Structure formats: structure tokens, C-alpha cells
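Help wanted!
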Amino acid sequence: MPASLPFDPVAEARRQWTVHGWGDAADGMAAVTSLMRAQQIVLARVEAVLRPLGVTFARYEVLMLLHFSRADALPMTVIGARLQVHPTSVTNAVDRLEAAGLVQRQPHPTDRRTTLVALTDGGRALALAATEHLNTEVFGAPGIPADDVTALVGVLAGLRRDAGDF
Amino acid sequence: MPASLPFDPVAEARRQWTVHGWGDAADGMAAVTSLMRAQQIVLARVEAVLRPLGVTFARYEVLMLLHFSRADALPMTVIGARLQVHPTSVTNAVDRLEAAGLVQRQPHPTDRRTTLVALTDGGRALALAATEHLNTEVFGAPGIPADDVTALVGVLAGLRRDAGDF
DNA sequence: GACCGATGCTAGGACATCCAACTACCTCCG
DNA sequence: CGGAGGTAGTTGGATGTCCTAGCATCGGTC
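Answered by r_m:
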């Protein structure tokens, strides 16, 4: 846990940007920097909750995605597309989940290129337990006023849409 | 570049949360998930701009921090506190920056525990060149309306303050 | 003036992410 | 129906982040 600072480093950077004649980009810089730091903070909180359960957020997301799917199973590619991560990240996550007995690789019935990832009973149980913890300890109290949460999600949705997230 | 989806995965997750009786935490979950994805998108854009210059965003932040300091030099600890990262991350970044000749470790005049990191001429030149690229290609056009940028920075500042970022 | 807790930095290990490259397989067109 | 191009997944390498542990140094206290 790093020490607190007597000032907001993002605001300070924004001031420096203006001083250096980069005023046009100062707001964008502040937005990008804020986003990076906020993500780091929130991710740390999430990981702290999940660590005792033996999973990471990346793997938790895979488990929940499978839990929400019709047959509790999805192709690797679909997982990557939904979570918006590189195929190798999916391979990595599934390797570890499979080693922990939380998911199982299965051959696709018609396409031999495809690997299906199926949720095991243990995987579902862990996903639900983890969700309960996250809901009470993080999602239910994200540290942002309710109105702001709605605004935040909306603004970020616009950004994500422009970037091709959906 | 992952493929586009026919729907917003965050909105879909939010719907699933509601269906499963976790409505109280649905907004928070959506906020956290949006934050993660948006950060990933923005970071990828930043890294794409910096890659041709041979630096990463983490190292660029160190260079700019030094550039904004009075003597173009700061102790490792101060860098970690400002950037809100673990001491070992600072060591890692400075190792690579020093190997590239962009910064230089110097002994502290009075405290022999402390290591000062000093910006070299090459480091300053690279930092300014990188800033120019980032300002025009990312910060100047962050993909968010100007009004929303202000709101976003404000909301995230609240979150960061609560987390002890400043 | 010596000791003991606090501070500054680094080494080793675990994870997640990306990129480039490769293999295996599928599909479609000529 | 055979080859070209595209798709699915993995392997190997590079980075960044954190945690735990360790060493060196500083400072306040007795």
C-alpha cells in the first residue's frame, strides 16, 4: 500500500501539461491517467477478495462466462471475444483453471480445430462463492456514488463502442 | 484486434446479474467491468503509439515525472509514490530505462539508502517526442466527448481519493 | 553511544497480457 | 477435387505488476 500524497498527481500532471503549452491535450491526458490509476485500484481490491479463494479476476471472468452460457461450455475463441483478450491469454487462463479442476477441455463435436471449455461442478461452486464475496465487498460498495456509477458506465460504454468492443 | 460483438458484454453481464438476484450489485459490477475494459483499450492505444519509440507507458511515466521535477532527478521512493506502483516495479522500470541510456542512477548526497534517478539528455528528448505523439494521437482525441471527459476525471478522482491515491 | 524499529532498494517467484510464429484444420473457389 | 486463404489453438519470448524476503542504512531512544 503506497503512501498518500499531499496532492492529486493527475491534477498536477494536468497543470504541467498546461504550463508546457499542451493545453489542448491536457484533459485527455488527465482522463487516460485517471483511468489507468482507477483500474489499478479497483483491480487490487477485486484481487484481494479473490485471492483467498484461489482464483484471479481473469480466471473468475472465464468461470462466470461459462456459467452464463447455455451448456456451461464455450469455445476458446468465444471466450476471448467476449472478454476482449488475446487468444494466448485464454489459453493461459484455461490451463490454470483446468489444472485446478474448475474447467475441462472437450473436443468440439463437428469442428476439430475448436476446443470447448466446460465448467465443472467445482468450477461453478467456486464461481458462485466468489460472486457472493465480490458482490458484498466490491460491487455492492464500489466507492462511487450511485448517480456517478451510471454516468461512468455510460461514458465508458461510448469509449468502448468507438474502440470496437461491441 | 479481437472481433466485434453484436451486443455490449457489460450490459449482458449486468442483465445476468439482475436475473440471478444480484441486482443490488449489478451497477457496481458494470462499473468495475467497464473500467477494466476501457483501461485495456486505452492502454493498448497508448502502447501502440509508444512502441515505435522503444518505450512503454510505464517507462514513459517515469521519464515525464523526472522531466517535471526541479533537478531532473528523483529518489526511487518518490517515483513509486507518485505513480502509485510497487517499489519493485520502479526498480524494474529504472533498470530498463538505465540500460537504454534514458536515465542514470546516482547516489543520494546525504542518505546512502536512497538512489536518485536522473534524466539524461536522451531521456528528455525521447520523453518530449513521445509526448508529442501521444498528445496528437491519443490525448488530443481520447474518443470521449469533452464534457464527458471532465465528468469522468471527476468521478474517478473521487474513487482515487477514497482509495488513498492522494 | 549502542540498539532496535523504520526506511530504501533489490532479488526471486507468480501471474496476466501481448506479439510473432507455428501446426492443424476447415472452406471455398477455380 | 485440389490448393489457397482463413480460422483455432498453442508455444516461446518480452513486459509489467505484485508479494515475500532480504540486506543496508538511518534515526530516535534509552
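OP: Thanks! One thing I noticed: Chain A has seven helices and three strands.
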